[in-house]
Amino acid sequence: MAEKITYDIPNIQQVIKLLANVYSDPRDALTEFLINSLDAGAENIKIIVDKGKIPYRVLIKDDGFGMNDEEMHRTIKNIGNSIKVNPDELRKRKINFEQVIGHMGIGILGYQSFCKKAIFISKPQSSLLGLWKMTLEVNKEDATIEEASFSEENLLLNHKKGTTVVLYEIDYEIMKLFSFLFLKQYLEKNLTGILRRRRDLKIMLSDTRSEITLEPLAFSGIPFSETSVSTESGKEIKLDIYIQPTGANDDIRISTKGKVVVKEIIRLPEFQHSPWIDGIMHGLIEANFLEVAPTRADYLRNNSFKEFINSLIQIEDALNQEIENAKEENDVEKRAGILKKLNSAVSKALIEMSFEGAKVDVSDSQGKPIMGRLDGSPPPIEHTLKPRKEKHFRINTDNKETPIRARSRGGLNLKWDHLGNPNLHSVLREGGLIIINEDADDYSSECLDSNINKEIRYLAKLVAKELSKFNNPLAAADDVMESSISLEIRILKYLNL
């Protein structure tokens, strides 16, 4: 006959220590106290980083519903059994169940991961219930609950109701993570969903020198067209994704009820592939139906999580298409800017070298002048071997007298294309058409990174080479090279490079 054995926990303090240290970052543990304030209905929260004297401390003040001695007693006696999962209890406190974030009942222990003592000064909404104080200390199995002194009431943000948590005796090295700037950036990133959802909420951060109000992150780039997607069972996933073709400094975060749980989506094995790992997207994905794991930095791998993964995988084709479109738009803008700079610099360099027809104008692909402005059709930017539309920029060398060498509507043209030869950088075609070969072995390293000056130098060299060929059709190779170097130097001079 099978024997049933009841769990026994002989070393409660060891279990408490393990629960308290589920946070890999002390700032995550600190954030749990902010979540408690929000779940208590606070509309104003103030974080004070006090490094004025040793021992260091951080204070978190709120105007939430507060706790009396019975509430404090219930909290300590029910670690891991939060009332936040009980709608009836929340209704008694006039708290919206849909907005409650915490639910495990262990966040209060998080202080042990970065300080030695946590003191709670709290005043319930009803003044008849008094002012109470609860003290928790590392390596102690019990908590102290007592009436707070009159002077301790001054620690409250609101004298009518609320709670102040004093996190006491913080280690010097950990205090560095709580520096004003680091903490501001961290909190704004990880609470941006909450700050966006609750416009009535005000969270202040202050130290001895500064005080600011936390603001939600402002994402930049091209917004992904889909703002939500539904799972197989009809649960909503909200999407706030932005594409930055030149590279994003941040990643896509996943949040539940406004609080970021997964700080980088690529930490999840299911998203360690393109386009998620390409570093050109950032933003926020919110899934309020996911269950947060005890580590607070991941989700439970249940059916809801599987549906979440499948739903995001289904939008990858649309994401890839919009990323390609964004890259093309970015290339058009970048090349237009480069050509404007080259146009002016080449014109001045040609004049300096006394080339005939030194005046350089811009025309469209049909040879029609554009009054010296580069606002004609942009260069093609397809990075494929598909047939290209005949769109390209044209640098004309028209002169009031005789053009240098009248070819194909009397002008030199500049065009990007895939020529398939990695050893060929550019080629001069009939009519003065200069083709920049995107398949050249060094094109990617010179032109496809974020250093635009590097790309301009590369293009200036090719343009100088081909213009020298065009203007010296009968010259020896050495003379053409000498002319090319001289022209390149002058172009770079007028580009201030």
Structure notes:
This protein has helices at 12-20, 26-39, 69-77, 87-92, 172-177, 180-190, 192-197, 303-313, 316-352, 443-447, 452-471, 477-494; strands at residues 44-50, 56-62, 115-123, 132-137, 144-147, 162-170, 202-206, 211-213, 222-223, 228-230, 236-243, 252-256, 259-262, 281-286, 361-363, 393-396, 411-417, 426-429, 433-437. It is α+β, with helices and mostly antiparallel strands. It folds into 3 domains: 12-213, Heat Shock Protein 90; 222-314, no CATH class; 325-494, no CATH class.
What does this entry show, briefly?
This protein is 31% helix and 20% strand. The protein has twelve helices and 19 strands.
Spatial order of the strands in the main sheet?
A: 5-4-3-6-2-1-7-8
Tell me the name of the CATH class of the largest domain: Alpha Beta
Q: What's the name of the CATH homologous superfamily of the largest domain? A: Histidine kinase-like ATPase, C-terminal domain
Kindly report the average pLDDT value.
80
According to DSSP, the number of beta strands is: 19
Give short descriptive properties of this protein.
six-stranded mixed beta sheet; 12 helices; 31% helix; 20% strand
